């Protein structure tokens, strides 16, 4: 969670300096969801991510320097510097890709789960999507196929209260998204997305169900984002500054984690500070390397564009 937060805070600053090209959506505030879910996955398991995908990639174990190089569009980035923020993928880590299409990763995860089932492995696939993405037809279709084929898949809806500037009070049909899973017989529940322990426990049950042949689960994790929808674009006229202040002061998953582990004495303040320092150094080094790296060579312009079979 600290690595994701530091990565995102730093990208926010660097983006303002106009060093980073393209569209960038920050995940800060929602870290407990990616960290809690991915903490119960192995490298062999799959995730399919969203346009707000940095947190999922970090939590699945993608190299942060490779990610930073990718955001800067530099050679040596995880996708050769040609994908940028919204197309980070790393198959070695089972990270099937960020996705510019809302809910675009959902059928990909269902497909990966089908592949695992057909091949007879015990791999699990997780589909991350937003509350807005939950209105896409591909989500409804994937829920049905996951039930019919009893796929080893977990649908993780990240309800951050908004789809761009549109609040869930405007775009949500029905009382909650989890009911859409229940409607087709998928065990579904709402989870506090600020509480990494709650997310981890819910994800562990869901992954165990999927791995042992019990089929799909839907988790609706609620946590608002700290920044606007997208860097350099969103004035956030749709929410009050006091709401953002309240979010950052009372619903910060990193602080809530620290409060809890200090209170139960499972970690000391010194240990937490050491993590902070190590993370800062790691992200500093990643930014430094990304700034100084070369852009992809012109000879690479057409490589990786089409797959050859
Ligand atoms: C199919 C499709 N329709 C519209 C868009 C434009 N768009 C980009 S992000 C977004 C909102 C997504 O909201 P949500 O799924 O809640 O994710 P969040 O941004 O809140 O993480 C929309 C409508 C898109 N990328 N893909
Ligand atoms: Mg949303």
UniProtKB/TrEMBL annotation:
Pfam entry (one): E1_dh
Superkingdom, taxonomy of origin: Bacteria
Cofactors, names only: thiamine diphosphate
Any coiled-coil regions, as ranges: none
MF terms in GO: magnesium ion binding; pyruvate dehydrogenase (acetyl-transferring) activity
Dehydrogenase E1 component domain span: 1-298
GO process annotations (BP): pyruvate decarboxylation to acetyl-CoA
Keywords per UniProt: Oxidoreductase, Thiamine pyrophosphate
Keyword Electron transport: no
Name assigned to this protein: Dehydrogenase E1 component
Organism expressing this protein natively: Amycolatopsis taiwanensis
High-level lineage: Bacteria, Bacillati, Actinomycetota, Actinomycetes, Pseudonocardiales
